[in-house]
Design goal:
single chain, 69 residues, mainly alpha, 2 helices, 81% helix
């Protein structure tokens, strides 16, 4: 189960990050100023990538710990 969480953390990070970077690249390379919405969505996707990847990785690491007492 821990491995599944780690794999899902990497996949969710990569999917959101690649989409966000692609949108940011399109918005920056465009000669028009009206792609600000694409840039905002790209930044949002990059932020979601770090959030979802971090939360799933944290859950994977917490899953393997046993309580000591």
């Amino acid at each position: 189960m821990k491995t599944l969480f780690r794999i899902s953390a990497v996949l969710s990070f990569l999917s959101c990050a690649v989409g966000g970077v692609w949108l940011l690249g399109k918005a920056i390379a465009s000669k028009y100023d009206d792609l600000i919405v694409a840039a905002v969505i790209g930044l949002f996707l990059v932020g979601m990538a770090f959030f979802f990847g971090g939360i799933l990785l944290f859950a994977a690491e917490r899953l393997g710990q046993k309580e000591r007492g």
